[in-house]
Amino acid sequence: MRLAGAALNQTPIDWENNLRNIREAIEQARAARVELLCLPELCLTGYGCEDLFLHDWLSETALQHLQTVRGYCTDPGMVVCVGLPVRLDGRTYNTACVIRNQQILGFAAKQWLANDGVHYEPRFFTSWKAGNIQDFSFGGEEFIIGDLTFEHQGITFGFEICEDAWRSAQDRPAGRLKARGVQLIVNPSASHFAMSKTDVRYQLVLKASRDYAVTYLYANLLGNEAGRITYDGEILIARNGELIKRNQLLSYKDVDLEFADVDFAQEPPVTEHITPLPTPDEYRELNQALSLALFDYLRKARSKGFVLSLSGGADSCMCAVGVAELVRLGVAELGVEGFMRKAGAYSEDEIHFARDYRQLPGGPLVEPRKETDAGRVQGASHSAEQTTGNEQLSLNQQLTRRLLTCAYQGTVNSSDDTYLSAKEVAESIGAVFFSWDIDQEVQGYTGKIEHALGRALSWQTDDLTLQNIQARVRAPSIWMLANVLNCLLITTSNRSEAAVGYCTMDGDTAGSISPIAGVDKAFVKQWLVWAETELSYPGLHRVNNLQPTAELRPLEDMQTDERDLMPYPLLNRIERLAFYERLSPQQVLARLEGELVDADAEQLKVYVKRFYSLWSRNQWKRERYAPSFHLDDYNLDPRSWLRFPILSGGFAAELAAL
Ligand SMILES: Nc1ncnc2c1ncn2[C@@H]1O[C@H](COP(=O)(O)OP(=O)(O)OC[C@H]2O[C@@H]([n+]3cccc(C(=O)O)c3)[C@H](O)[C@@H]2O)[C@@H](O)[C@H]1O
Ligand SMILES: Nc1ncnc2c1ncn2[C@@H]1O[C@H](COP(=O)(O)OP(=O)(O)OP(=O)(O)O)[C@@H](O)[C@H]1O
Ligand SMILES: NC(=O)CC[C@H](N)C(=O)O
Question: Does the CB atom of residue 315 touch ligand 1 within 6 A?
Answer without folding.
Answer: no
